[in-house]
């Protein structure tokens, strides 16, 4: 099998014509992204090989017999070997958007709050290579140190550099190895953060409020939705006074106090009389909150009782911005007053968790990390989880976690086609294999046609068909189908290696 390689300018405008011969020596494909890694060997004059250092971030497409694209991605690293010297140029240490997250030691020897600098950027580098972000973490430094660190690091890493080292290969012929990565890997270049659809006030702050007594009911927190989302869980810190037997439940109301929804009930017998504990209330049908709209989240217990009632933790330091606590009495809503700060209001200690379909989350994260895709397609998974993210992880890692979470029964897979269209889709039915493997490690499709080694059935289930003793699908329990998560292929030798786990990295 012969292969041809097309390398383009980083802006996809024109092909790069180099005075060297290009030969693919390694491919891999993953069910999490499609083309994953390829290695190309360049042979030619030393001058032409030195010129290949400019190929970093250039798009690469490998064709079988000049017509069918079999692998596509971009140049991540170039290593030139000649004599006893090797020269390495790589994108791995290129970062053109940098900030520092840090804490510093205050004069009283207490660690200060976490701080961060503004992003510093190199626009010309971003125009040529794309945006590559880095957050540097430091402790025990001051503001000026952090600002200077961000600027200095950016200046030293905004452009690719070269490394020199001794070559231990006994080969007098000069050549270069070009390592390429699939486009899906570029989701690793940007961090993802979503601070919407989660509302909380953990305090600390003094204060309690007694309710479900004749003069006070339904303590509630007024807050403003910062994005559209579906409310699923509400938590309050509660205790019981006396021996109330009434069930508790949370309420979602509009800003005037009109009920929108009520949660499932919580048995008051489970509350402690000596301490406050977090109590979770679940809205079995998640309720839509509209961005920019004010709501009241509260807790109530039906009829009142002067001897057997409840207490809820409040925050008299007003730790929640843009809202405050209220209660209901005799047809009117009142602000919960502050005892330690007379004349002022307080907040509740609470948290509210909103959920969304993980397919929508995958779409949002992929869109945030997108720099090179021509289209993004995502499924509806039917799984609802919190879209809140403040982990400091890359878009790639956040998406990978959601792909492994899947649809509740199967993984969600991803592929990037040669037009750079990114598609996420549900893993196929494991009981219906669509590929077959014989004793010679050759794959066949469902019609019995052999598949080329550069076109492996990645993302499919394959069954072994080499034995005449097996009659599929009746004998599938004897030889259950295996998931083809990742395939490696060495064109020079024809070697193939098959993995079930698609998340392995073979850089």
Model description:
By secondary structure, this protein is mainly beta. Among the domains are: 3-93 and 161-181; 97-157; 203-348, Jelly Rolls (Sandwich), CATH 2.60.120. It is built from five helices and 35 strands. It has helices at 46-51, 123-129, 143-157, 358-369, 395-405, and strands spanning 3-7, 20-30, 32-44, 59-64, 68-82, 85-90, 97-103, 115-116, 120-121, 133-139, 162-166, 175-181, 198-201, 208-211, 217-224, 229-241, 249-254, 259-262, 277-289, 294-300, 309-315, 324-329, 332-335, 347-348, 350-357, 375-377, 384-385, 412-416, 421-426, 435-437, 443-445, 461-464, 482-483, 486-490, 495-499. The strands form five sheets. Strands 1, 2, 3, 4, 5, 6, 11, 12, 26, 28, 29, 34 and 35 form a 13-stranded mixed sheet that branches. Strands 13, 14, 16, 19, 21, 24, 25 and 27 form an eight-stranded antiparallel sheet that branches. A six-stranded antiparallel sheet has the order 18-17-20-15-22-23, with no helix packed on it. The relative contact order is 0.13. Mean pLDDT is 92; it is low at 474-478.
The Rg value, from CA coordinates, equals 30 Å
Task: Name the beta content range.
Answer: 35-45%
Distance between the termini: 24 Å
**Number of E-state strands:** 35
Estimate the mean pLDDT confidence: 92
Structural class: mainly beta
Task: Find the CATH topology of the domain at 203-348.
Answer: Jelly Rolls
What is shown here, in short?
The protein is mostly beta strands and 507 residues long.
Relevant terms:
507 residues, mainly beta, Jelly Rolls, 13-stranded mixed sheet, 5 helices, 10% helix
């Amino acid at each position: 099998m012969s292969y041809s390689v097309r390398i383009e300018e980083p802006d996809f405008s024109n092909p790069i014509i180099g005075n060297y011969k290009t030969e693919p020596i390694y491919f891999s494909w993953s069910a999490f992204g499609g083309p994953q890694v390829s290695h190309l060997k360049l042979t030619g004059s030393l001058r032409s090989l030195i010129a290949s250092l400019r190929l970093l971030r250039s798009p690469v497409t490998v064709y079988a017999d000049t017509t069918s694209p079999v692998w596509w991605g971009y140049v991540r690293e170039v290593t030139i070997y000649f004599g006893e010297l090797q020269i390495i140029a790589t994108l791995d240490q290129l970062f053109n958007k940098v900030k520092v997250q840090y804490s510093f030691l205050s004069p009283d020897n207490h660690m200060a709050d976490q701080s961060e600098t503004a992003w510093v950027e190199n626009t010309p580098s971003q125009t040529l290579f794309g945006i590559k972000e880095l957050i540097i973490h430091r402790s025990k430094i001051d503001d000026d140190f952090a600002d200077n660190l961000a600027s200095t690091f950016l200046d030293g890493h905004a452009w690719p550099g070269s490394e020199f080292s001794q070559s231990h290969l006994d080969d007098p012929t000069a050549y270069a190895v070009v390592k390429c990565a699939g486009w899906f890997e570029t989701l690793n270049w940007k961090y993802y953060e979503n601070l919407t659809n989660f509302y909380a006030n953990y305090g600390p702050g003094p204060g309690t409020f007694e309710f479900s007594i004749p003069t006070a009911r339904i303590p509630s927190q007024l807050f403003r939705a910062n994005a559209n989302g579906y409310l699923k869980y509400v938590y309050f810190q509660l205790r019981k006074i006396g021996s109330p037997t009434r069930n508790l439940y949370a309420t979602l109301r509009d800003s005037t106090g009109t009920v929108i929804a009520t949660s499932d009930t919580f048995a008051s017998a489970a509350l402690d009389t000596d301490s406050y504990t977090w109590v979770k209330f679940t809205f079995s049908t998640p309720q839509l909150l509209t961005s920019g709209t004010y709501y009241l989240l509260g807790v109530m217990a039906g009829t009142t009782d002067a001897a057997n009632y409840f207490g809820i933790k409040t925050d008299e330091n007003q730790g929640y911005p843009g809202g405050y606590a209220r209660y209901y009495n005799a047809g009117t809503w009142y602000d919960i007053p502050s005892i330690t700060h007379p004349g002022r209001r307080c907040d509740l200690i609470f948290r509210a968790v909103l959920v969304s379909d993980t397919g929508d989350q995958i779409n949002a994260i992929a869109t945030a990390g997108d720099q090179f895709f021509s289209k993004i397609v995502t499924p509806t998974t039917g799984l609802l989880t919190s879209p809140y993210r403040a982990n400091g992880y890359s878009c790639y890692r956040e998406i990978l976690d959601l792909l492994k979470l899947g649809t509740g029964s199967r993984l969600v897979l991803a592929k990037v086609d040669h037009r750079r269209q990114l598609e996420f889709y549900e893993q196929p039915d494991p009981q219906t294999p669509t590929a077959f493997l014989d004793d010679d490690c050759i794959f066949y499709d469902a019609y019995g046609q052999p598949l080329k080694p550069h076109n492996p059935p990645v993302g499919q289930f394959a069954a072994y068909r080499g034995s005449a003793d097996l009659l599929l699908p009746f004998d599938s329990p004897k030889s259950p189908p295996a998931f083809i998560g990742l395939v490696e292929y060495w064109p020079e030798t024809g070697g193939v290696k098959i993995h079930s786990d698609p998340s392995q990295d073979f850089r």
